[in-house]
Amino acid sequence: RHHQAPSEIEVFFVDNGIDPTGLGEPTLPPISGALANAIYQSSGQRLYKQPFIQQDIKLG
What we know:
This protein has 1 helix and no strands. It has about 60 residues and is an all-alpha fold.
């Protein structure tokens, strides 16, 4: 589906008088699931609790 993605995205910040909050955080939640799936694909082991630490991953 990569070919369906827009080639350009415009971002606008609205000056509304509300104190600023984070703008980059919405990208963080999906990272945990993607990392857990990558670990599962490489090790065959599902991790359900965070943080993921090397001692919890059984390789081989």
